[in-house]
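Case study B.
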Amino acid sequence: MERGGYRILKLYGLKEPSIAKVLRDLSKKNDGITRESHPHLSENHTTISLQSHDNSLAEKKLDRAEKEIRDLLGPYIFASGDQSMEDLVGTMLSERDLTISVAESCTGGLIGDRLTDVPGSSRYYKGGIIAYSNQAKIELLDVSPGCIEEHGAVSDQTVREMAEGVKKRFRSHIGIAVSGIAGPDGGSREKPVGTVYIGMSASEEIFSAGYCFQGARKQVKHNSSTMVLDWVRRHLNGDPFLPGL
Amino acid sequence: MERGGYRILKLYGLKEPSIAKVLRDLSKKNDGITRESHPHLSENHTTISLQSHDNSLAEKKLDRAEKEIRDLLGPYIFASGDQSMEDLVGTMLSERDLTISVAESCTGGLIGDRLTDVPGSSRYYKGGIIAYSNQAKIELLDVSPGCIEEHGAVSDQTVREMAEGVKKRFRSHIGIAVSGIAGPDGGSREKPVGTVYIGMSASEEIFSAGYCFQGARKQVKHNSSTMVLDWVRRHLNGDPFLPGL
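Model:
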């Protein structure tokens, strides 16, 4: 029987080659620990493992190896082990007795789907509006027609109004919104496919930022949903959001 | 180089052992064709393959084998090859110039997510309301409080009102709604975990039925989303819905 230990650290927001380089550099000291980087949808799962006959020594070595990685990549590590981003966000909202509602455009329902994969999510997830058309953004989220006309549906201004609108509709503590161009069509020179804006209304403040994600339609959707969940996590932690456009 | 042919038929609504039995019986004649049944989330993918040096003879044999399966399992086969349920439903809606909107409760956004995985879905998918609470069902979908009080949020009556409500909100041709108990909590003796009601408002008519799905939370959600899409497909084809509770 093999013995030793195995850990998973889950990262979001840093490109895979950068993570792999850090792990490669750490592995240069040949301490018997295997550090691997595994792209997983929009996330990255980093594994640290060690085979050893002495389990307690192995745990100590893994503690040290984990700390080294956390020191270098900490801001991107959102969870470890089996915990998913949606589990984590759900636990954080629950513990603080906060509720959330989501206005989804380009993600089409994926954020709500992920939030409701967690048992008991009805405690903090009040619901969402999937506003796939401008008309729905105006009628169901109280976005002003002038805002869409002037700035476009994929803009800081529109996602801010969407976030406020959904928060009011559901009377939740946090309202979050996403609007973007998932592709393959709909891109322009100014706003190429993958351009996504996120807005958040929480604690009397409104935040927004734009991002540009790589990949095909489903990847843009998944990345957008993870970024939204990461925003909630960072907001509740008091951490800065990942830098945008 | 291996030659011959390979086909996939996609089925929904028939239990895997029943499909496997049909394939086993057909394979008894030892015609060299391999028939296999692969559970795939809430669907079943049946493959038919034949190795042969004569491709045109292989195609003829596969045509015959496919016809035999279609004769026996036709009502459950929704697509073949790479086409997904959401691709198919999207194509059918597009061709008929129809629009759809969805009121989601237990699926939490999964139906919208699947519909919007298809490029160009903004042409027919107008959006959705994820009404995870009774309050949202009442305020955003115009469900009458008395209906929920008398029949419960998971009932024929409530999903009918949800379907009408979402259709009106989005002014779509078809409104479809789903409300159920995804678990692990929330079940009762009368309505155990897995109980899901679907309602549809289309062509001046309202339909509804209840189902009971097996499995854990994510499986109940996925099965519900596929049943909803299958309802749209069957409605547009003029086929009867799968029998409910």
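The two ends of chain B are 51 Å apart (CA to CA). The remaining cases will be described in the next quarterly update.
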